Amino acid sequence: MLRAGIFDVDGVLLASPHEEAWREALAGYADPRAFTTAIYQADVAGKPRADGALAALTAMGVADPQSKAAAYAQAKQTKLEALIAAGTVEAFPDALRFVQAVHDLGWRLGVASSSKNAKAMMEGVRLASGMKLLDVFSADVCGRDLAHGKPDPELFLITARELGAEPGDCVVAEDAPAGVEAARAGGMTALGVARLHDGRGLREAGADLVVTRLTDVDLAALKAGRLARVGA
To answer: Is residue 74 within 8 Å of residue 63, measured between CB atoms?
Structure first.
């Protein structure tokens, strides 16, 4: 029976500039204009910085990507910090409403992201109740140094443990195929959030349900411990 929720940050809770930072940092390695959203979602999103850098360079056909990944990852981080400082991070209104509603159901909630910038991006975001977004989460497992990144389930298994929940009792909200694969590998229910109308990749990764907005999830069903779409 579902009774705990785990949320990714970038693309699920927040519209962050991660994709743009990866794109801008490609200058000098490949044509940034060729780095599409489809490439970002399929190959980079949800992965730790080093893994994402290698995956991006490989996807772009850059020669000897292993030797260039560390420098590219640092360039991306510099770009990202500048974009965050410029105020480009926004919370998705539907996500804030959903988090508040699930919290009101009495569920234990956790936030889990490979990004070491996730907490900084969430600072200052508040729910309609006035609560800080970060205060809603009983477990904050963002940016930790782990042995394995997504699609390995380590990140989500740690979050479940810190929530005091069994993996089978957790639903994970993810926007990237690698995150969906990680949730499923950990024995959790996977909710795919296709804000970019990229539901096919999430379904192919094994998502139990794919929605374009979190408010498409049936709260009455969640209260009963199951995942369903509104009106299903």
So the answer is: no
Cα atoms in the 13 Å half-sphere on the side-chain side of 102: 33
Topology of the domain covering 18-85: DNA polymerase; domain 1 (1.10.150)
Quick check: helix, strand or coil at residue 48?
A: coil
pLDDT digits (tens, 9 = 90+) for 58-106: 999 999 999 999 999 999 999 998 988 888 889 999 999 999 999 999 9
Q: Where are the domains of the chain?
A: 4-15+89-223, 18-85
Whole-structure pTM value: 0.84
How many angstroms separate the Cα of 32 from the Cα of each of 42, 44, 73? 17, 14, 15
- Reported in sequence order, the residue ranges of the chain that DSSP labels E, i.e. its strands, are 4-7, 14-15, 90-91, 108-113, 139-142, 170-174, 189-193, 209-211
